[in-house]
Amino acid sequence: MSAVLQAPHVQIRPMRKGDLEAVFANEQAAYTHPWTMGILRDCLRVGYQCLVALVEGQMAGHAVLSVVVGEAHLLNLCVAPGKQGQGIGRRLLLRAIRLAREQGADTVFLEVRTSNRAARGLYESEGFCEIGQRRGYYPHDEHEREDAVVYAKPLL
């Protein structure tokens, strides 16, 4: 007999001010160099498209998208460590792409750490193509930095 694993029910909705503590906790759990509470708060304040993913009412991930003059930039996509590998990141990504289209963007851009193979696989599986690198873009440890791979996905 084989077990059938079901994907969790994921609710994706706009981020609210009241979500910031849980979003910040996810940032801290998922990243060695998380965004600050101030950055997260500013993203909401300036009107970026900020999304949260909830599983059974619990914060499971978030995404931040900026759309300006026909271009979208996925600034952050984060899934809580205990929720990774369940399709939550893909759901957030697809919703962000849909929002970008709805706001008239013709391309979505993003950067990802060179070492983040799982994220790179996700982006490539959704049609993002590598268009370049940014040397020393991400903090790595106390004295070094890590390159970013730049991806783009045309929406036309």
How is this structure best described in words?
- This protein has 156 residues and is of the alpha+beta class.
- It is 28% helix and 38% strand.
- It has helices at 20-30, 37-45, 88-102, 117-125; strands at 10-14, 49-55, 58-68, 71-79, 107-113, 129-139, 145-154.
- Strands 1-2-3-4-5-7-6 form a seven-stranded mixed sheet, with helices on both faces.
- The N and C termini lie far apart (45 Å).
Nutshell version of this structure?
This protein has 156 residues and is of the alpha+beta class. It contains 4 helices and 7 strands, in the order βααβββαβαββ.
Structural class: alpha+beta
Q: Which spans of ≥5 residues are poorly predicted at pLDDT below 50?
A: none
Number of strands: 7
> What count of helical segments does DSSP give?
4
The main β sheet shows up as:
7 strands, mixed
> What's the Cα radius of gyration?
16 Å
Q: Based on the structure, what is the oligomeric state of the protein chains?
A: single chain
Which outline best applies? globular
Give descriptors for this structure.
7 strands, 7-stranded mixed β-sheet, alpha+beta, 156 residues
Secondary-structure map:
Elements: E1 10-14, H1 20-30, H2 37-45, E2 49-55, E3 58-68, E4 71-79, H3 88-102, E5 107-113, H4 117-125, E6 129-139, E7 145-154
Parallel strand pairs: 4-5
Antiparallel strand pairs: 1-2, 2-3, 3-4, 5-7, 6-7
